[in-house]
Amino acid sequence: MVSLRMVEIAVENLYFRYPEALNYALRNISLRIGEGESVAILGENGAGKTTLAKNLNGLLKPTEGSVKIDGVDTRNLSVAKIARKIGFVNHNPEHQFFAEKVEDEVKFGLRNFGFSEEEVEKTVQEVLSVFGLDEYRYKNPFQLSGGEKKRLAIASIMAWRPEALIVDEPTIGMDYAQKLNIRKVLRSLVSEGRCVIVITHDVDFAASICRRAIILSRGEVIGDGGLRELLSDEELVEKASLRKPFLLELEEETGITGLEEDFDFISSILAEAFKKCRS
Q1: Angle at 200 between CA 225 and CA 88, to 5 degrees
Q2: How many domains does the chain have?
Q3: Across 1-5, 49-53, 156-160, least confident range
Q4: Residues 92 and 222 in one domain
C-alpha cells in the first residue's frame, strides 16, 4: 500500500454563477472533505453536483466565498497543481482522452508531471494490470467499451497517485457487470485510504461505496452526513427527488442489517433471479 498524505478540501460560503447567467448555480455552500473519506454528492438533474465538483478541483473558481486545498485558495493554484492532488474523471471519459493507444493514455499524465521514463514504464505496467486493461494496451481508447473507457479514465489519473479522486456520474451508460467492475475499482481506492468523491444520481451505486452523502437541491446543500441516515429521511429524499437505496429498503423489510457489505453476493442472486423471471 502506498503511503498517503491526506488532502483536505475546505469550502467556505461558496457562491458560483456562470458568466452571463442571472442566477447562482451554487449558493452559500460550506463543507470540509478529507481524511480518506468516501463521499457521494447526490441530487436531481440541475442541482449543481457537477458545478460543485468542478469548484472542488479548481476547474471553476468561486464567484464569492472560497475553496481551499490544504489551506491554499484555489484562485492561487493552477489547475495542474490541483490535479496533482485531486484527480477528476469526466462523466464522458472520451473528453479526457488524448492518445491513440491505451498505454499512451496512461503515460500522458505521468510525463506531464515529470515522472522519469523508468517510472513511467513501471507505473503503466502496474496500472494496466490493476485495472484489468493489460490486454488492451495497444488498442485505441475510443474503441473500448463504455466500462473499459471509464476504467481507463480512472487508471490514467490514478497512475500519478493523487490523494483524492472525483468521479462524475461513473455509471452512466453501463450495464450491471460494468457497474460492478467500477464499484470494485472505487472501493479498492477507498480501502487504500484515498478520498473518493462520487457525483451520481444512482443511489444504489453510491450506497455501495460511500459512507457520507452531500445532498444538493437547486444549488444548495440540504443534507450533509451519513449516507444511510440521510437517505432514510423520507422528507429529505423526496425534496431532493431521490429515492431510498434498494438495500436499505431490503434491510427495513427483512430486519437484517449490514447488507451493503454483501452487495456483490446479493446483487448476483438478484441478477440471476431476474434472468429466470424473463426466461
Answers
A1: 95
A2: 2
A3: 1-5
A4: yes
Asked whether the predicted pLDDT for residue 270 surpasses 80, the reply is no
pLDDT digits (tens, 9 = 90+) for 205-256: 999 899 999 999 999 999 999 998 999 999 999 999 999 887 777 777 776 6
Residue 49 lies in a domain: no
Same-domain pairing of 271 and 160: no
pLDDT tens per residue, range 87-112: 999 888 999 999 999 999 999 999 99
Global pTM exceeds 0.70: yes
Bridge partners (DSSP) listed for residue 212: 39, 226
**What is the residue range of 274's domain?**
245-278
Beta bridge partners of 64: 15
**Together in a domain, 256 and 233:** no
- Report the percent of the chain where pLDDT is more than 70: 89
Low-confidence winner among 21-35, 123-137, 183-197, 259-273 (lowest mean pLDDT): 259-273
**Per-residue pLDDT tens digits for 146-157:** 888 988 999 999
Residue 32 backbone dihedrals phi, psi, to 5 degrees: -135, 140
Asked if residue 177 belongs to a domain, the reply is yes
- Domain co-membership, 131 together with 210: yes
Which position has the grid cell 422528507? Answer: 235
